[in-house]
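Hey,

The postdoc asked me to send both predictions to you directly instead of through the lab channel. I've kept everything plain text so nothing gets mangled by the mail client. Protein one:
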Amino acid sequence: MRLYPAIDILDGNAVRLVQGDFDARTVYEDDPLAAADAWVKAGARQLHVVDLDGARSGKPANLEHLRRISGELGVDVQYGGGLRSARSVREALQAGAARVLLGTAAFADPQLLEEVLAAHGPERVLVSVDARGGRVATAGWTERSELSAQEALLGLHARGVRRFVFTDVDRDGMLEGPDLDAVRRLAGAVEGELVYSGGIGHLADLEALARLRAPNLDGVIVGKALYERRFTVAEAQRALQA
């Protein structure tokens, strides 16, 4: 499995939130490029960048940071947050994203998802399935639908999506570990690749995910635990290969 160090950008800073609460933020770097550079120097081979300003406003607000990170560091970047139009997706890819991450738009605008998949291919388009209490959360995690995470994955797969990010919002930023049964169930729900995010706090959490041997579990996004130096990038990568 692959490690995706997370860089969440809010008001120009690299931050982490707790359970998606914009008022419960910790600023770790004034410059997102500095955070990205630290992870790459530590051995990261890919990064997960989220434009929180874009997620809140509905359109990308930090493409210049994406441009700097992808242009100066030479690693694959998957980028999401506010990508709710074909133009926004195109601009993110032109700014250097290796892959784009759709959230709310994938559920609210089926035509957009179809258009983006046709234009860029399923290898460059991920869809984020974020859940609170087992139900899909949208609009920057501020709204919750009645759709379960598994129903969402199955429905998106039927529409041609093959790459997914699943975030357990209730565990996000809590450092209390993943729900392994839920991860196993969701990774087995569809064919394709699933990246997990939410609650990673210890190396043992990564080792437990690796031991699931879930064939569709492609990687893990880690943010707060890395920023707080609970383990290093190298240690995390070794744990995921256990």
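Protein two:
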Amino acid sequence: MNSVVDAAWLKEHLSDEDLVVGDVRGPNAHMRGHIPGSRPLVLGSPPPGADEATLTALAQEIALRLRRHGITGRERLVLVDRGDGVGAMPTLQMAELAGHPNVAVLVGGMAAWDGELAEGTVELEPVREAELHANVGAMPTRQEIADRLGDESLVLLDIRTPDEFTGRRGSPCDPRQGHIPGARLVELGDLFDGPGQPASPERVRAVVGLPEGAAVVAYCHSGSRSALATLALRAAGYEARNYPGSWHEWSRHDDLPLER
């Protein structure tokens, strides 16, 4: 299963025994109307700044939450949000941190689903055992990025505006302005055809200027725009991860270099 699926694929595979649909909109929205067989799944959002020890502890907590939702790591897990990708991508990153090896996002979320809907609450069936092993590499830290500056096997993509990138007009809450050395500027709008709808893989690869399969880490100011960018990047075939701390964290560490 790819890390991005569409509604047609989900309809075809919805009855597969090894498929689980996690609705990240919250229990109330799920109760009012959801894809048949789906279950509410709330895992929280990636922390804005963390080291490896913190992420290891968080991964264990997320694995516990997954088990409470009956998720073992052996299934194919498809995440569904309202349609803009804002809810699904942080949840995907948390599930991958916990060690789930097979997670995907439904492109367009509930807005793209034209099949029948079910209503009412769904009883969760917790499991005691799971095949979930912490994968701290799923969530880039400032230390990893600092250690890999100049590493040609990893490309940094800055998902901000040109003014933020150059430091001319960044967020006033950041003590320093500019960008991480070596990062390439990519504007979020160039990666999407509409809300939650990634542009074609060909267009995304033309914008990014990297061959399919390249390893990239995206960042923005606080990890939100870059989380969405990661959706489009994965849909285009990139090995993409989101740096949650982004510039908000990086700018607060005077020992970390920057460019303007």
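Summary for protein two, as requested: The chain has two domains: 4-135, 140-250.

Thanks,
C.
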